[in-house]
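hiii so um. not sure if this is the right channel but i have a protein structure encoded as tokens and i wanna go backwards to a sequence. like what aa goes where. can anyone help
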């Protein structure tokens, strides 16, 4: 099944509230503590693991967790290392495969406790991590859901020269990203909340950027062998990632069960957007889940 066009129904989520949030931590192989929050559904029809983007944390996605929970899913999302409440240098890595190894630990533990094969959701850099993880086949997944995934980024000639220099001199040193915070959402309250959130850091190291560039090349090369159900929801006016990376990946994935929703004027964080953009994205996600949870 292939969906190229999405129906936009402008209505908000219901008034249902999440149960009490459960918090915990797992220890990665190198001793780094990985904080997570989760909501276990009393009558689960499935499970989902969510992966946040660069410089932010899982606490920014509780409304989206509610959408998954309403659909009957138990939900877990962790703060990636170097982010939020998790350990590690802010915006940096020790080894190039840290994010992937951490995600496997999170997914395997959640699968074991819920006795469910989970869906995997990722936003922005988290979408790239989720895509590479799904392509690797290291864990069983029910499907892959992506929000403005970082499958391509724009780097100027100067930025590439600076990256090469940083890679040689201080690959683990995180510097300010310089990304425009005002372009995360059309909702000014969301923008101000992101700016004032002390758990957001807006930093990135050369090691992280190189991980991203390598992962982008790998997932594009593996797209033609991708077989999981796929939903891609992509912002059209994105100042953080290049939407063409999503188009290229989607075009190469076989026409088995894939869906592409494109929001022409939406900013990067489609699920933290103003209602006019957020509600259509929420409805498209809900419709996809209904079709894939029968």
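sure thing!! here u go:
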């Amino acid at each position: 099944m292939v969906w190229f066009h999405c129906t936009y129904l402008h209505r908000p989520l219901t008034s249902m509230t999440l149960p009490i949030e459960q918090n915990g931590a797992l220890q990665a192989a190198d001793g780094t503590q990985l904080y997570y929050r989760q909501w276990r559904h009393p009558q689960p029809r499935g499970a989902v693991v969510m992966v946040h983007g660069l410089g932010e944390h899982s606490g920014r996605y509780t409304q989206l967790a509610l959408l998954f929970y309403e659909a009957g899913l138990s939900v877990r999302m962790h703060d990636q290392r170097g982010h939020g409440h998790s350990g590690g240098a802010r915006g940096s890595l020790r080894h190039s495969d840290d994010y992937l190894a951490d995600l496997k630990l999170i997914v395997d533990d959640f699968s074991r406790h819920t006795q469910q094969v989970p869906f995997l959701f990722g936003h922005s850099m988290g979408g790239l991590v989720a895509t590479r993880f799904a392509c690797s086949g290291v864990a069983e997944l029910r499907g892959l859901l992506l929000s403005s995934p970082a499958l391509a980024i724009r780097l100027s000639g100067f930025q590439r020269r600076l990256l090469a220099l940083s890679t040689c001199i201080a690959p683990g040193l995180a510097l300010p990203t310089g990304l425009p915070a005002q372009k995360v959402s059309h909702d000014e309250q969301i923008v101000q909340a992101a700016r004032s959130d002390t758990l957001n850091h807006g930093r990135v190291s050369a090691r992280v950027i190189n991980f991203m560039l390598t992962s982008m090349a790998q997932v594009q090369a593996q797209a033609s062998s991708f077989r999981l159900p796929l939903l891609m929801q992509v912002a059209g006016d994105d100042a953080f990632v290049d939407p063409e990376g999503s188009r290229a990946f989607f075009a190469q994935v076989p026409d088995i069960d894939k869906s592409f929703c494109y929001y022409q004027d939406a900013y990067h964080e489609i699920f933290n957007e103003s209602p006019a953009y957020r509600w259509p994205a929420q409805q498209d996600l809900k419709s996809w889940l209904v079709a894939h949870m029968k």
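oh and DSSP finds eight helices and eleven strands in the chain.
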